[in-house]
Design a protein that fits this description.
This protein is α/β, with parallel strands linked by helices. It is built from 14 helices and eleven strands. Bound molecules: pyridoxal-5'-phosphate. The site of pyridoxal-5'-phosphate has 13 residues, from helix 7.
Length: about 475
């Protein structure tokens, strides 16, 4: 831009791109095409689509680019390099599908461009957060008065739960972290299972608890904390339990463990990133018996609930412990009578996640959430049965949505997974289970039909044939 006339041209153009909704209408048209093609596209991009990404690798342009051109470039070159996560045959990691109403709500909220830090910044965002908090506490059967913080994911949610716990334990020992800091504070310990998720150790490290303060309890064959090895707990203990092991989907035995922890004055946090939703389904609720005895819980809406990325939730029994740990105030902030979302999260400026969360919950309702969870479990069991019928080994008890699969030999398993990932018909990740490589299936999308499972099992069989031929 070398003179002011040209700059005026730029603002005129931005006004036009906004007023006529040019950019968003184009994005919606392309997005609609994408959704229509989702069931039939490759689940992982092919080599040509990956190679075409090189077109993005340009220097930052000196001159502005029209919105329409930006959106078109994304559609043309970006869309083919996506993974078809919202289709029916993506089983990698624990990545949920996408509910139409939640997607629509997310897009609308993006158009509104609200900052959900304070009620006064966005009354609608604050209102829907408060509604979600109430609905979730009810749906998950948590203690009345528990509060929710909407964050980016379970990593941050767990960090917040353990932060509240750390400060609460220290406070009971007569130490005020906000006033005195951590240096010289009484020592705390963390007790967790050998099957705990890596994000738990990350959160503990951020909070000042390293390997020397962590006591790892051996896990049983399914990845549950083995109670016979539980060390004595006390009022310096953070106990971390798990609803849904990231490999096997197994649930810790909450009722006795939480009971022991309460008795001892420990703080219990439950990592329920995808598994806490079991509580909202009649046929799986028994897996979560006793979670209401814990102090804090983390769960992702972007996993089992199928709301858009990114939406994690921290729930905490003790409002004061959480808000006190995340305290921040300054004279320019205007806290109000309504809900001020930033009080419950480490962030200040935040997008309005409550909008899509509310939409996801309302679009399914209690019965729909029950059915969603039940269906994911049914499809996982279908996978296990059909794979066994084709002489694959299923290594875990399929209690939820996770299935761990192996072939006759570790080499054949590894090669089969490579062929499966290359094939593009479905996508699974790999892992190690009791020292053996496994193909890891996570059924996470409402869109996965019985036929998607059958097609995927056929892809497993074909991949194993090609793998065996290549090893012969
Ligand atoms: C996914 C997952 C996490 C991490 O959650 P993010 O939303 O990715 O931060 C933690 N624990 C378990 C059991 C998970 O499945």
């Amino acid at each position: 831009m070398n003179n002011s006339n040209e700059r005026e041209g730029l603002w005129q153009r931005l006004h036009k791109e906004r007023a006529k909704g040019e950019a968003i209408r184009l994005a919606l048209a392309y997005g609609g095409d994408y959704l229509d093609g989702l069931p039939s596209r490759r689940v992982f991009p092919d080599q040509a689509a990956l190679a075409a990404l090189a077109a993005f690798d340009e220097p930052l342009p000196d001159e502005p680019t029209q919105a329409a051109e930006i959106i078109s470039q994304l559609h043309k070159l970006g869309a083919p390099a996506t993974t078809a996560q919202g289709g029916g045959r993506y089983f990698g990691f624990v990545n949920g599908g996408l509910l139409p109403a939640a997607l629509g709500a997310r897009l609308l909220a993006d158009v509104w461009d609200q900052n959900a830090a304070l009620h006064v910044m966005s009354p609608i965002a604050a209102e829907l957060e408060a509604v979600c908090e109430r609905w979730l506490v009810d749906l998950l059967g948590l203690p009345a008065g528990s509060v929710a913080g909407l964050v980016s994911g379970t990593s941050t949610a767990t960090l917040c739960g353990l932060l509240a716990g750390r400060n609460a334990l220290l406070s009971r020992l007569g130490w005020d972290v906000n006033a005195q800091g951590l240096f010289g504070a009484p020592k705390l310990r963390a007790v967790l299972s050998g099957g705990a998720h890596i994000t738990v150790r990350k959160a503990l490290a951020i909070l000042g608890l390293g390997a020397a303060q962590i006591e790892t309890v051996p896990a049983d064959a399914q990845g549950r904390i083995d109670r016979q090895f539980l060390p004595p707990l006390d009022q310096t203990t953070l106990l971390i339990l798990q609803a849904g092991n990231v490999n096997s989907g197994a649930f810790d035995d909450f009722a006795p463990l939480c009971g022991i922890a309460r008795e001892a004055g420990a703080w219990t946090h439950i990592d329920g990133a995808f598994g806490l939703w079991a509580r909202a389904c009649e046929t799986t609720a028994h897996l979560t018996a006793g979670i209401e005895l814990a102090d804090s819980w983390s769960v992702d809406a972007h996993k089992t609930l199928n709301s858009p990325y990114d939406c994690g939730i921290l729930l905490c029994r003790d409002r004061e412990a959480l808000v006190g740990a995340l305290q921040a105030s300054d004279s320019y902030l205007q806290f109000g009578a309504g809900r001020d979302g930033m009080l419950y999260t480490p962030d200040m400026s935040r997008r309005a996640r409550g909008v899509e969360l509310w939409a996801a919950l309302k679009s399914l309702g209690r019965a729909g959430i029950d059915e969603l969870v039940a269906q994911l479990c049914r499809r996982a069991r279908q996978f296990a049965e059909e794979l066994r019928a084709h002489h694959f080994r299923v290594l875990n008890d399929v209690v939820f949505n996770q299935v761990l699969v192996a072939c006759e030999s570790p080499a054949l398993t590894t090669r089969t997974l490579e062929r499966l990932q290359d094939g593009g018909e479905c996508w699974c990740g790999g892992s190690q289970w009791h020292g053996e490589p496994v193909i890891r299936i996570s059924v996470c999308s409402w869109a996965t039909s019985p036929d998607d499972v059958r097609r995927s099992v056929a892809a497993f069989v074909a991949a194993r044939e090609r793998a065996a031929a290549s090893l012969a």
